Amino acid sequence: MSAIVQRRGAAPSEQPSTRAWLAVSSLALVAFVIVTTEFIPVGLLPNITESLHVSLGLGGLMVLVPALTAAMSAPLLYLGARSYNRRRLIAVLGGLVVVANVIPPFADNLTEILLARILLGIAIAGFWTVVPPLGPKLVGERLGTRAQSIVIAGVSAGTVVGLPAGQFLGNAVGWRVTFAVAAAVSAVVVIAQLVFLPDIHPEATTRARDLGRVFGSGTARIGLTVTVIAFVGQFAASTYLTPFLEDFAHLGSGSVSVVFLLYGVAGILGTLIGGPLVGRSLVFSLVGATGIIGVIVLAMPILHPAPAVVGVLIVGWGLVWGVIPLGAQVWLLHAVPDGQEAAASIAVATMQVSIAGGSALGGLLVDSTSLRTVFVTAGAVLVAAALIAATEGVRQNKNPVSTKGL
To answer: For residue 134, what is the DSSP state?
Structure first.
């Protein structure tokens, strides 16, 4: 597989400036904030549903709606972005995040919150489409993949920090104030991005056929399949992790907050160590990560009488999950090196459809059966993803994606 092609940015012989790395860091921070916002309601789910007098399954729409919106919006935003300055586009998307967080503190019902989550979904689609490929444009080809991994790490870290951040703040100050805090932080981050990020113009006009080229790659198709299954299993279970800990493991809100805090810290660490692991073997990193999480999720309904053990398992879950979003995105970006924005838009659509599907599956199961069934089903799905990835790894008997320089 070819290495990432870098046409603009610092020349390979040049050492990127401190400002260039600050720009890369600002992209990672913006991506981190927007994805954290996406998952804040997971930790607040019991609080919000009780306050608005709706069921847990219906409350799960707060995760499903932005994911589904992002999935539908990503290809459209890719085509609509065309020659727009990426710096200005990211600023507009950041503004949507601020608005999406301003509405919930004043919402009287779930419908109003879901309208805000639609705006968030549009912002998520735009960010995941245009942000991951920008790292190399800022620092040049030689360090481009490293910059790219930093940006993707911001996205990946957000998927594990949103849950503990929402749960911790929700218990401390209430769910409405939590969204207000998220709005303030989002505004500050957008301002920082405007300060450090230079004007970035796309290399070429976006074309619909570029999206089709992504599916024309066998490597990309396999990666997409594993990604879909893994994300469905992950978010079927994680959407309902708070009620599981409270109702099955009988942990108090304070203990749950500590568990989620450790989950988030472990997730960030997992994202950081995920780069070297993915660099050694992308396929088998995904096999190991999905398989371990599958076993953890399957074990939780059995081990719930031992809350300390469950807590340790969840911290391990966060550590290992950090590898999966990073690996999935790197896989697709390297599978189509000369069409990375197209690949990124397909990646966000795939991941968000899978998040929506996982949340919907969990919601249906929790309202029609039990939380136990949710976790057993989700664990089985994750193990299936690991088996598919392992089969592909054995077939190729080598890494399908080159990730040198990560």
So the answer is: G
How many Cα atoms are found within 13 Å in the side-chain-facing hemisphere of 299? 16
Dihedrals φ, ψ of 398, to 5°? -165, 170
CB 378: neighbour CB atoms within 10 A? 28
d(CA 27, CA 22): 9
The pLDDT tens digits of the residues spanning 320-379 come to 987 888 778 777 777 777 777 777 778 778 887 888 889 889 988 988 888 899 999 999
Q: Radius of gyration (Cα) for the chain, nearest Å? A: 20
Distance (Å, whole) CA 158 – CA 156 = 5
Instruction: Compute the distance between CA of residue 321 and CA of residue 289 in angstroms, rounded to an integer.
Output: 7
Six token digits for residue 144 = 């481009």
Residue of 87, 90, 153, 98 whose CA lies nearest to 120: 98
Cα gap 200→86, rounded to integer Å: 5
| Type of residue found at 52 | L
Q: Are 179 and 49 in contact (CB under 8 A)?
A: no
Cα–chain center distance at 229:
15
Tell me, what's the pLDDT at 305? 84
- Residue 199's CB is within 10 A of a number of other CB atoms, namely 8
The pTM for the full model equals 0.72
SS3 string, 170-231, reads HHHHCHHHHHHHHHHHHHHHHHHHHHHCCCCCCCCCCCHHHHHHHHCCHHHHHHHHHHHHHH
Q: What is the DSSP letter of 141?
A: S
Residue 88 tokens, joined: 């200005």
* Amino acid, single-letter form, for residue 50: E
Rounded to 5°, the CA angle 62-148-134 comes to 80
Share of the chain above pLDDT 90, in %: 22
Letter string b/e over residues 166-188, b meaning 16 or more CB atoms within 10 A of that residue's CB: bbbbbbeeebbebbbbbbebbbe
CA-based angle 256:259:263, to the nearest 5?
135
Cβ-Cβ contacts under 8 Å for 250 (sequence gap 6 or more): 307
Burial environment of residue 397 by CB neighbours within 10 A (0 to 12, 13 to 18, 19 or more): exposed
